[in-house]
Automatic annotation (TrEMBL):
Enzyme Commission number: 1.1.1.1
Name this protein carries in UniProt: alcohol dehydrogenase
Alcohol dehydrogenase-like C-terminal domain segment(s): 228-342
Lineage: Bacteria, Bacillati, Actinomycetota, Actinomycetes, Micrococcales
Keyword Metal-binding: yes
Gene3D superfamilies, alphabetized: Medium-chain alcohol dehydrogenases, catalytic domain, NAD(P)-binding Rossmann-like Domain
CC cofactor: Zn(2+)
InterPro entries hit by this protein: ADH-like_C, ADH-like_N, GroES-like_sf, NAD(P)-bd_dom_sf
Annotated family: Belongs to the zinc-containing alcohol dehydrogenase family.
One Pfam entry name: ADH_zinc_N
Boundaries of every Alcohol dehydrogenase-like N-terminal domain copy: 47-168
Amino acid sequence: MRTALLRPAEPVHRHDVPLRPAAVAMAWLGVGIPHEALAVPGVALAPHDALVAVEMSTICGSDIHTVQGRRHAPTPLVLGHESVGRIIAIGDEGVRGADGAELHIGDRVIWSVTVSCGHCDRCVAGLTQKCRDLAKYGHARIEPRWELTGSFAGHVHLRAGTTIVRVPEALPAAALAPVSCATATAWAGIVRGAALRGRGRPDPSPVTGEDAAVLACERVLVFGAGLVGLTAAVIAAELGGHVRIADPDPARRAFAERFGLAAVGPDDVVEEGADLVIEASGRAVAAALDAVDVGGAVVLLGSVFPTDPVPLDAERIVRGLIAVAGVHNYTGAELHAAAAFMAGRGRAHPFAEAVGVVHPLAALDAALVQAAAPGAPLRIGLTPR
């Protein structure tokens, strides 16, 4: 086990937190190299930072792409960005959650994949996930005073500029951990799609009384029954849409049906038959563009890895008044809303069962192999304890 040495104390604005026993993070060193355990005996929290003890993390597709060498990443690196944990230390000046309320030691939380400055032109424009000075959990190189950069670890050092959301004690960790990636991305995609269709902004809280469903009567087609696509389909259905979800994998279609969704094979999709199309697989962009009806919208969520270029029939898009948008990650407000959805309407669905197996953190390499294998569950969990 490699040890990260404690460094001399910083000025008083940093809060030094010794850890006994030392925190353990699994450092990725490159393609084909086993992860190496890194011992971190302490952290130095800047103002508005927080230290979280990880309860559970889940393996996302981007983690698999990284270890396979399909996406560039700096090394050494602590992977992992889908997590739930508990605050165990807070830097000077305190930490506030996404709802503006002060957070406290002992709070159970999830957090954004991104760290944003909040004042650059992109942040001011609402594109906080594309901040000019962006950092990302599970994607950033280990550096001095920020060794605990990802959630494949026992602890994560949350920096100022991270959106943190307090979550209910009653919800299972397996349902909460993916909220900071899959659920929030799906919510962001539905928000964008609803806006493109002129339907307003979805409300994550349960619809009661005379509240109208944002996607009522909309024909929604989702390509890809991975966790992002599955979640987007469930959200769209809860918002009143007539939803179909397409995937070539019979097991994934069967799992989607357990959420009350109409699941079909890609060959069963009728062209030009949907008002809103969500492409969440990254492999069906052409089919998604073919499937949208006149005046409809296509939201691309899954194209986050290199693929062959897709031919674009610009004339059909122009004459069909079709809107096409890409959504990558999410804003802090969308994470907050996604967590509210999971704590509200999401409770009616078996999201926790998407985590098919849970491994100890020390078995990370074996867990990654299993997650990349054909027929793997939608998510594999990791627990440090």
